[in-house]
Amino acid sequence: MTSTLIWIAVALLAIGVYLSWTAGRLDRLHARIDAARAALDAQLLRRASVAQELATAGVLDPAASIVLYEAAHAARQADEEAREVAESELSQALRAVFGDASQVDAVRQAPGGNETADELAAAVRRVPMARRFHNDAVRAARALRRHRTVRWLRLAGHAPFPLAFEMDDEPPAALADR
């Protein structure tokens, strides 16, 4: 009788440790998603800011400046529901304006343009990486939240279901090569 109670206690302890470990892992994944989302937001804001600064610098032709400024402004001002679309439109505007290497060369020849072009090139390269880190964290959390144990025992608590950030983040060829 005593050994049976000990085995039951050991089994309950093992189950408790497993559930605690799973809940902790899920909590860490949610924290990782929050950190990755903050990094993604920072990179998107940096890309939009540099694009907006470049559009108002007077080094691009007027049509390209207007297209780039409007897309960057829309991306900076977009609310959460429209953010993915606005950021995709900024990516498309960047590809339209900097699809030709001559535009990048024109920016580099302007005073202070070399640093601005390098900053924009770095920003358009970092956005896909930040989005990939965010979406990988979302994918891992979703996989864990699909387990029956997590669903049945509600180990995720009241945390919202994580959503991936889907956008067109292909950089312009002229900036990606730098």
UniProtKB/TrEMBL annotation:
Transmembrane domains' residue ranges: 6-24
InterPro entries: LemA-like_dom_sf
Keywords noted in UniProt: Membrane, Transmembrane, Transmembrane helix
Record SUPFAM superfamilies: LemA-like (SSF140478)
Protein name: LemA family protein
